Amino acid sequence: MIYKLNIHTDLQITSLEDLEKLQPFLEDSTLKINKSQIARELKKDRRTIDKYLKGYKKSKQRIRSSYLDAYYDIIKEPTSNQQIFYYKSTLWQYLTDNHGLTCPESSFRRYISKHPEFQV
Q1: Taking the alpha carbons of 82, 86, 92, 94 in that order, is the dihedral positive or negative?
Q2: Dihedral sign of CA atoms 106, 89, 79, 118 in order
Q3: Out of the domains of life, which is the source (predicted)?
């Protein structure tokens, strides 16, 4: 069986993201990659280099839920048509007093701004 490979010979590794260029060499076992040497040049741990060589990609942003998600239904109720809160600070004070909301007002404002269904 004849394999034809399209492999670049001029590779420059300047960051962890560039390590995916070495993937064909690992799959074919045509070239022994010195992970310790790359780790010294990039000033990273060799296990990190190995992780990126195996195809790891760092996520762009953290995915986590807000602690205000537990209050979503409670926030949605006063913002309906029956009772309109014109100010976010008034709504925050109402939820703090009546529903035990324990978050800073600035975090509450950011949460309201991120959800278009709460906009009046």
Answers
A1: negative
A2: negative
A3: Bacteria
The rounded distance, in Å, linking the Cα atoms of 40 and 35 is: 9
Tokens representing residue 24 in the block: 């064909």
Q: Which residue, 33, 109, 62, is CA-closest to 101?
A: 109
Q: What is the largest CA-CA distance in the chain?
A: 76
Single-letter residue type at 14? T
Q: Domain spans of the chain? A: 1-61, 67-118
pLDDT at 44: 93
Q: Are 19 and 38 in contact (CB under 8 A)?
A: yes
- Residue 9, pLDDT > 80, answer no
Amino acid symbol at 72: Y
> Nearest-CA neighbor of 75 among 20, 33, 19, 115?
115
